[in-house]
Amino acid sequence: MSHLTSLREVIAPEDVDRAVLYGFIGRMLQAAPSDADLTTIRNLESDDTALGGELAALSKAAAGSTPEGLSRIYQDLFIGVGRGELLPYGSYYLTGFLHEKPLADLRASMARFGIERSEGVSEPEDHIAALMQMMEGLIMGEFGQVATLEEQRKFFIEHIGSWAGHFFKDLAAIKSDPFYAAVGVLGTVFMAVEADAFAMTE
User: Fold this and answer.
1) Other residues' Cβ atoms within 10 Å of the Cβ of residue 63
2) pLDDT tens-digit readout, 49-60
3) Residue 100 CA to chain centroid, in angstroms?
4) Could you tell me the domains of the chain?
5) What is the distance between the alpha carbons of residues 41 and 18, in angstroms, rounded to a whole number?
6) pLDDT on residue 1
7) Which of 19, 22, 62, 167 is the Cys-Cys partner for 135 at CB 3.0 to 4.6 Å?
8) CA-CA distances (angstroms) from residue 149 to 17, 65, 115, 198?
């Protein structure tokens, strides 16, 4: 049995669900979804919770989307010529500039947890996609050990909770594409759920 497998056996099912959602949102913001991704999203199961309703809305939006169309939208939103419509970085949302103190603070936290920058990635580590995937890894023990709830809460408050909700609201407000707007609404609701849950642990 691998070390990672043994770690995951002690993770509560609801925390696995949280990690999956963090990872899913991160992947949607890291790159445009492939045809296989869209097929999976179109078949998402939902429930009567707030998050379930937004997953259903995303599934509906995916029904009318194509990989080619979403690739163009992703380029316009996050890359552009010089810069995209949105700048999904913690430093930018918190200070108005890139590569500022929030990024340095994040790098210090990454070092403490043993989180290393992926090879070949040129984006600053405070990109929203990277942060979503870091939370996934902390919950699932992908950086050597499962982060305690207090460690997760601290990481969320210090590096995500102060700005991610604003980013997702901006994404939800875009007029150019219903799929990414639905990702924005899903992210907005998820960040609020996480913030409320962490507040209850203080």
Assistant:
1) 11
2) 999 999 999 999
3) 21
4) 3-79+88-199 (1.10.3480.10)
5) 17
6) 40
7) 22
8) 15, 37, 18, 8
Return all residues near 92 (Cβ < 8 A) that are at least 6 apart: 98
Phi first, then psi: give them for residue 70, nearest 5 degrees.
-70, -30
136 C-beta neighbours (distance < 10 Å), count: 20
Q: Which long-range contacts (CB under 8 A, 24 or more apart) does 47-51 make?
A: 50/189, 50/193, 51/21, 51/186, 51/189, 51/190, 51/193
Q: What is the DSSP letter of 144?
A: S
DSSP class of 176? S
Q: Do residues 101 and 91 make contact, with C-beta atoms less than 8 angstroms apart? A: yes
Distance CA 4, CA 39 (A): 29
CA-to-CA distance for 63 and 69, rounded, in angstroms? 12
Is residue 177 within 8 Å of residue 66, measured between CB atoms?
Answer: no
Find out whether 138 and 152 touch, Cβ atoms under 8 Å: yes
Query: What long-range pairs does 63-69 form, CB within 8 A, spacing at least 24?
Result: 64/178, 65/33, 65/38, 65/177, 65/178, 65/179, 66/38, 67/32, 67/33, 67/34, 67/35, 67/38, 69/177
**CB contact at 8 A, 135 and 19:** yes
Q: Residue 7 — pLDDT band, cuts 50, 70, 90?
A: low
